[in-house]
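Retro notes (design track)

What went well: tokenization of the new backbones is finally stable.
What didn't: we kept losing track of which sequence belonged to which structure.
Fix going forward: every design gets posted as structure first, then sequence, in one message. First example under the new rule, 519 residues:
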């Protein structure tokens, strides 16, 4: 099978999975993982010699797919909230990352020893470093799906993006430490130079490219040209950084933030911004789909149970280490709202980056199969267990409004309506002389008492009612704007409205739609 045909089939499968997951209200990422696992089982059980024609190589991920995912995620991260929460983000992605790797390494090594699983300390360090990279796509899609508070979203998105870049840098150091890279040797001068170039050089390069692209975006109003600028920024910042031995992830991250805040916010009209966002959304959807489906096709999923004990130890070690360093940072830097610590700890979903770093472990490494299985297995558990229960965790700490909470409004309405009917019936029966004064007074008092309880309940849920009404009004207004937009497009296509006037009217409507999406 040719790579082009294989890619087309993969996209067709991805679209089918997306449609089915939307229809049955399933998480798209979870559905992708399940389908990828099913494809792996079918391929290796029934068609072991079949070659799909395309594989998730280091080059495909780092040269094509990862720049799209990193840039798209960074593009949405705004400077003001990011820098307002920078002390927490840097500690989570920096200090927390180092503490987490150290603690996770110890827990994996000694945990395996307790259960009689042979593993070297170097392998435990390698596994811990690779699984320290949380998946920005998984984290962001998780937060969007659960409608988490904005501050929480900024903390988790910022941490996920930064620790990806740092995890790749640390992964390179560990690879050298274990002798995988024969072209470099660890020394203090080399380490200082490496870190400065990997981190400092990457940020400067990405920021510079982002600034230039942002200025160029002001020179054109053509959506196709603007999307081309975005593509150049994403791939250019990543590939140039890799070419000069800097961090492509950090460079692309910085570039994406600069373009998203300077180029998009200052230089793009609402219509152009919507076009760029639609392009980035599709590109991220395609890239993420390709990663998970190719992982399923390249990995023998049925081999994972052979190392189930080590996988479970790795997953538990990851959770303990993450809970510990998030809790520790909250002690050092108090001020996180209630409930954020357990949610941030539980929300550390792993994904494509960790899995592809695992595949880049050399074949000659003695513990390669065990390391790959631990990384893949633990990453899959974070997706299948942590991501699917995240909404419940958020709801437990009152950080999202569950559907059940919003249904309280309807319950109150129903109770008030039934109470009024009961009062009317009681009054009618009393006037007809069907009940005595004593019975009438008794039930009048009971109904009055119940009415007071419902009114108190209603007062407590007033803010919730207003929130529900505001959200309903926002959605209806957006629908009406879409109807107006379709009418203008139809009129322009039939020639009853000049194209120039139609474009102007659509731009005004897009401005309103964009404003609604931001609130």
């Amino acid at each position: 099978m040719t790579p082009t045909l294989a890619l087309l089939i993969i996209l067709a499968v991805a679209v089918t999975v997306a449609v089915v997951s939307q229809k049955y209200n399933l998480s798209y990422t979870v559905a992708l993982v399940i389908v990828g696992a099913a494809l792996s089982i079918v391929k290796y059980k029934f068609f072991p010699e079949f070659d799909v024609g395309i594989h998730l190589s280091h080059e495909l991920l780092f040269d094509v797919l990862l720049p799209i995912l990193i840039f798209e995620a960074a593009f949405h991260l705004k400077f003001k909230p990011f820098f307002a929460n920078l002390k927490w983000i840097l500690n989570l992605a920096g200090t927390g990352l180092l503490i987490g790797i150290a603690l996770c390494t110890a827990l994996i090594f000694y945990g395996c020893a307790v259960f009689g699983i042979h593993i070297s300390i170097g392998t435990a360090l390698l596994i811990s470093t690779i699984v320290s990279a949380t998946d920005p796509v998984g984290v962001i899609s998780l937060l969007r799906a659960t409608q988490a508070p904005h501050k929480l979203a900024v903390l988790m998105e910022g941490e996920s993006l930064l620790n990806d870049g740092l995890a790749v840098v640390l992964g390179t150091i560990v690879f050298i430490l274990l002798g995988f890279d024969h072209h470099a040797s660890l020394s203090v001068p080399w380490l200082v130079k490496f870190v400065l170039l990997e981190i400092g050089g990457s940020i400067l390069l990405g920021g510079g490219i982002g600034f230039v692209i942002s200025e160029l975006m002001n020179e054109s109003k053509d959506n196709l040209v603007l999307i081309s600028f975005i593509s150049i920024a994403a791939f250019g910042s990543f590939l140039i950084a890799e070419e000069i031995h800097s961090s492509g992830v950090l460079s692309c991250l910085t570039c994406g933030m600069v373009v998203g805040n300077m180029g998009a916010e200052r230089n793009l009209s609402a219509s152009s911004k919507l076009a760029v966002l639609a392009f980035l959304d599709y590109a991220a959807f395609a890239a993420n789909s390709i990663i998970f489906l190719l992982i399923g096709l390249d990995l023998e999923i049925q081999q994972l149970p052979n190392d189930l004990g080590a996988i479970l130890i790795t997953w538990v070690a990851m959770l303990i280490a993450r809970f510990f360093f998030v809790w520790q940072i909250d002690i050092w830097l108090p001020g996180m709202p209630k409930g954020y610590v357990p949610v941030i700890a539980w929300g550390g979903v792993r994904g494509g980056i960790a899995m592809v770093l695992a595949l880049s472990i050399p074949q000659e490494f003695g513990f390669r199969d065990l390391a790959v299985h631990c990384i893949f297995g633990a990453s899959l558990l974070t997706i299948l267990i942590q991501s699917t229960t995240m909404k419940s965790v958020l709801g437990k700490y009152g950080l999202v409004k569950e559907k059940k909470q919003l249904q309280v409004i309807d319950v109150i309405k129903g109770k008030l309506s039934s109470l009024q009917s009961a009062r009317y019936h009681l009054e009618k029966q009393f006037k007809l002389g069907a009940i005595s004064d004593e019975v009438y007074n008794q039930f009048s008092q009971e109904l009055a008492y119940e009415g007071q309880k419902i009114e108190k309940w209603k007062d407590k849920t007033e803010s919730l009612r207003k929130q529900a009404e505001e959200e309903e009004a926002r959605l209806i207004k957006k629908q009406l704007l879409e109807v107006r937009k379709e009418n203008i497009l139809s009129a322009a296509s039939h020639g009853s409205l000049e194209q120039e006037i139609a474009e102007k009217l659509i731009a005004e409507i897009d401005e309103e739609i964009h404003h609604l999406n931001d609130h």
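Added context from the reviewer: The longest helix spans residues 462-493.
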